[in-house]
Amino acid sequence: xxxxxxxxxxxxxxxxxxxxxxxxxxxxxxxxxxxxxxxxxxxxxxxxxxxxxxxxxxxxxxxxxxxxxxxxxxxxxxxxxxxxxxxxxxxxxxxxxxxxxxxxxxxxxxxxxxxxxxxxxxxxxxxxxxxxxxxxxxxxxxxxxxxxxxxxxxxxxxxxxxxxxxxxxxxxxxxxxxxxxxxxxxxxxxxxxxxxxxxxxxxxxxxxxxxxxxxxxxxxxxxxxxxxxxxxxxxxxxxxxxxxxxxxxxxxxxxxxxxxxxxxxxxxxxxxxxxxxxx
Amino acid sequence: xxxxxxxxxxxxxxxxxxxxxxxxxxxxxxxxxxxxxxxxxxxxxxxxxxxxxxxxxxxxxxxxxxxxxxxxxxxxxxxxxxxxxxxxxxxxxxxxxxxxxxxxxxxxxxxxxxxxxxxxxxxxxxxxxxxxxxxxxxxxxxxxxxxxxxxxxxxxxxxxxxxxxxxxxxxxxxxxxxxxxxxxxxxxxxxxxxxxxxxxxxxxxxxxxxxxxxxxxxxxxxxxxxxxxxxxxxxxxxxxxxxxxxxxxxxxxxxxxxxxxxxxxxxxxxxxxxxxxxx
Lengths: 279, 279
Prior knowledge:
Two copies of one chain form a homodimer. Chain A is of the alpha/beta class and 279 residues long. The first copy, chain A, folds into two domains: 2-56 and 204-276, 3-Layer(aba) Sandwich (Rossmann fold); 87-201, HAD superfamily/HAD-like (Rossmann fold, 3-Layer(aba) Sandwich), CATH 3.40.50.1000. The first copy, chain A, has helices at residues 2-5, 12-15, 37-46, 62-72, 84-95, 107-115, 149-158, 184-194, 208-217, 231-239, 254-259, 271-276; strands spanning 18-22, 28-29, 32-33, 50-55, 81-83, 100-104, 119-120, 129-132, 163-166, 172-173, 180-181, 200-201, 224-228, 243-247, 266-268. Chain A has a six-stranded parallel beta sheet with strand order 5-4-1-13-14-15, sandwiched between helices. In chain A, helix 5 runs parallel beside helix 6, helix 5 (84-95) packs across helix 9 (208-217) and helix 7 (149-158) crosses helix 8.
C-alpha cells in the first residue's frame, strides 16, 4: 500500500482507481509469464485498485482461461476476465435478451453465449443474430463442426435478415507451421459474399469490449487506465477517454506505435515497471 | 444457310463471324434446356459461324461439361468449352509455364491445372501461385479436402509471396436449401486476412476469360459477339470491343440491366430469336 502512495499525483497508479490489462504481451508471452507481472497485479490489488483482464480471444470461455491465469500465478475469478467471447455474448444479450443466435466458432464461444442466456439455433432461417469467431483449429484446419457453418451464417444473414456480430477483427496469428486465420477469415468471407460489413465488431480496437470491462470495474472511464502492448489497446482506451499505458514487453515496439500516430499517456518497460516508480 | 443470309447487314448474325455464348440463362436454366437453343447453335454453325461456350464455373473441368452439353443436345468437343477453371489454368500457364500452384477448390479445377502442365504442390511454402475456386460442395459444406486449404493458401501468399489468382468473383448461388457460397467466400477470407486483393480474377466480368475464348475462336473481338443474360456478360464483351447481345431468357430483366447503365447492342427474347430475323 505504501509504495503505491509514493507515486507522483500524475502517475497512472495515483490517478486511476481501475485498470484494464491486456493479457498477451503484457502479463505473458504465449505460455511464458512476463517476469513479475503477477507481483505487479498483487501489489495493485493490495493498494485498493480494481483490475480486470481483457483479451480478444474468440475461441475460449472464461472457464477455459482460469487455468491459464493459474499458470501465470494471478488469482482470478471468472468476473475478472473479459474475453471477446464473453463480451460478445454480453453485447447481444443486452441488445436482445434470449435472442436466437446462429454461431460460427469454437466451443468456448458457444459456452459464453449459452451462459448469457442466448438461444443457440442450428437452423439459420430462424436466427436473429449471427455471431462469428474463428472457425479454425490451432493447426489452421477448419473445425469439423464448422464445415457447414459459413454457409449457415450466410443463409441466416441473406434469407433471415439476422444481425451480423463479430467477436473481433483479428486477421492472422503465428502458429507452429506458419500463420493461421483469425476471426477475420470468416468476416471476410461473409462480407465479400453479402457486400456488407458486420453490424458490430466487439473486440479491440472496438470500444464495445472495453465498455463491458468498465461495467465489470464499475468505474467511469476517466478513473481507469488501459494497459496494453499494441496499437489496438491504446486506440480502444483512448476512444473511451481512459488513461493509456503502453508496455514494451509485447509484440510492438514503441517506435512502431508512434509511427502509427499513437501517443500513449505513459510508457513502461513492463507492468512491474509501472509499479516501480517512487515519490 | 439461306436464312442467315437474309439478315440485315447490321444484324449480329450478319456482322459477326464468331460467337461467344454464356451457358446458364442462355442455353439452359440449370438442367433444363432453353427451347430451341440447340437448333440456334446448329444453324449458326451451318451458316459458317464459329462458336464457343463460356462459363464462370470454378468446379468443373471441360471433361465434366461434355455430358452437360450432350443433355442440351449441343455437340461439342473440349476445345469449344471455355470454363473459368480452364481459362484460369491457361492464364497461369501462359504467365509462367509449369509454375508451382497451390490450389483451393474442386477436382475439376485441379484437373484443368494439371492438363495445362502446371505443377500442383501441397506445400504452401514452395508455391509460386495460389489459385482459388469454390471450396464448398453443392450443399454448402466445405469439401473435406479443402478443410486445410484456406490456411494453406494464406501461408503461400503470406510466407512464400505467391501470386493470387481467382477463377471468378462470384459471390453466392441458389441451391436446394438456400444460397451457397461461390469463389467469393475464399477471395473474401484471404483478402481480409492479407489486406490484399487478387492479382487477377479470370471469370466475368473480367476480360481474361473472354481473351481465352477469343483465342479459341481465332478471330479479332470486332468480328465477334458475346451473347449473354447478365450484366457481367455485357460488361466483359463491351470492354473487349465485341458486339453485345442480351437475351431475356435468363436471370436478369432488361430493365434491371438498363438500370445498371448497360446498353447492349442487341436484345432478343432468346438465342433462337436472334436467328429468327429475316430480311
